[in-house]
Write a structure and sequence with these properties.
globular, 403 residues, single chain, two-stranded antiparallel ribbon
Length: 403
């Protein structure tokens, strides 16, 4: 009994010792305050029915046995998200009975940042699928920081199955995979991610594969000009034109290539030299001249986060249309990205508040969208001009087994 009591006291002391750190105590305080704020929002701010009814209609069709994606529709139109979306909102409908108020309870929201009016609105008052997609994306990133590449890719694929905007992280993630793993490791992690998509989409792929793929993975959608937050200053005929879309895609690819060559692969001699080294390593692997783990490396956490967040931000800057809920795609990365720039703290705070201001202008106008683009470009310049960190924990290849 005495031993059990001593053990219990020891555990209590260890738990309380966590809060001796001022950073942990401050973070815990933010969580408590944000939980209270969310409760007040739910209680006193009316819910805005934008997509909730459509989501529930689409889920109801799925639960009633419909497997043809072209027949899954709601008030706002046809279902255009992959199958993971249906599974998430089916679970929400089961838990809440389809009632908005029950679904608003922040059981998953305690760890969220609490500095944005717009983000609270998106999470609590509108319940867009962007919320769940980004939650899974951040969970995947946490696993990548722990060097759990296979499990991280599986969770990343779950996020993609809810909304495809997560694919903006795919190019920097692929580059990190090439750095961290050997060729067989890259192939197996990508296969794991692909298997998730096949499993989630299986009920639809075996019945109506064309309808599922064409609806759930439609990359050619043209968003409505009125809802655009970033390029509202562009005339609508130009905004919806294929030429404008191609020019933005080209810019996206060029900027990604420039960051990859001059920033993320700087210590490997540039992107082309790095890819050549991976090619040589692959040839040696197939020739049996290298061990199975000889090309695996442990990446620094700062390099993983910087590459992922910056790669996604480049996609945000070059996106043709950003609707209000798309703010979630990069809001949680903004403080980190700003503090990676060489700017003084005051300018970082001004940029953060300026971006938040632009996202809270409704409806967006020529001036707010032009200001947002300028702020994005300033942040992008700051990331370009920031010092590059050495990407690896050590200079020697690691033999640590990938989890």
């Amino acid at each position: 009994m005495a031993r059990r009591s001593a053990t219990h006291v020891k555990h209590d002391a260890s738990f309380l010792g966590i809060f001796k750190s001022s950073k942990v105590a401050f973070a815990f305080g933010l969580i408590i305050m944000d939980a209270l704020l969310v409760a007040l929002i739910i209680t006193y701010v009316p819910y805005t029915k934008i997509d909730w009814d459509a989501y529930m209609s689409q889920v109801s069709g799925f639960l009633e046995g419909e497997r043809d994606y072209s027949n899954l529709k709601g008030d706002t139109g046809p279902l255009v998200y992959p199958a993971g979306f249906l599974y998430v909102y089916s679970a929400i409908q089961y838990i809440t009975g389809g009632e908005v108020y029950s679904a608003q309870l922040p059981w998953w929201g305690l760890s969220l940042l609490c500095l944005s009016k717009r983000v609270h609105s998106i999470f609590v008052l509108r319940l867009f699928n962007d919320c769940f997609a980004m939650t899974f994306l951040h969970a995947a990133l946490a696993l990548l920081l722990d060097q759990r590449w296979h499990l991280g890719l599986i969770i990343f694929s779950v996020a993609v199955s809810i909304k495809m905007n997560v694919l903006l992280y795919a190019p920097p993630l692929f580059l990190l995979l090439l750095k961290a793993l050997g060729i067989f490791g890259v192939i197996s992690t990508l296969a794991s991610a692909a298997l998730v998509q096949i499993l989630f989409g299986f009920p639809f792929l075996i019945s109506h594969p064309v309808a599922y793929v064409s609806r759930a993975f439609n990359l050619g959608r043209v968003f409505i000009h009125f809802w655009s937050v970033n390029f509202k200053f562009v005339p609508e005929p130009v905004f919806v034109s294929k030429g404008f879309a191609i020019s933005l895609l080209t810019t996206h690819l060029v900027v990604l290539a420039a960051f990859s060559h001059y920033r993320w692969c700087k210590h490997e001699g540039g992107l082309l030299n790095f890819l050549h080294s991976r090619y040589v390593a692959m040839k040696m692997k197939f020739a049996g001249l290298s061990s199975s783990n000889s090309s695996s490396r442990i990446l620094k956490k700062e390099h993983i986060v910087t590459t992922m967040f910056a790669g996604n931000f480049i996609g945000i800057v070059c996106a043709r249309s950003l609707h209000y809920q798309f703010y979630l795609w990069y809001f949680y990365s903004l403080p980190y990205l700003l503090w990676r720039t060489p700017f003084p703290t005051l300018l970082r705070l001004i940029l953060f508040m300026g971006v938040e201001l632009c996202w809270n202008v409704y409806p967006s106008n020529i001036y707010s969208s032009l200001l947002l683009l300028c702020l994005h470009l300033v942040i992008l310049y700051g990331l370009w001009s920031a010092p590059t960190e050495y990407p690896y924990v050590d200079d020697k290849p690691t033999t640590k087994k990938n989890k």
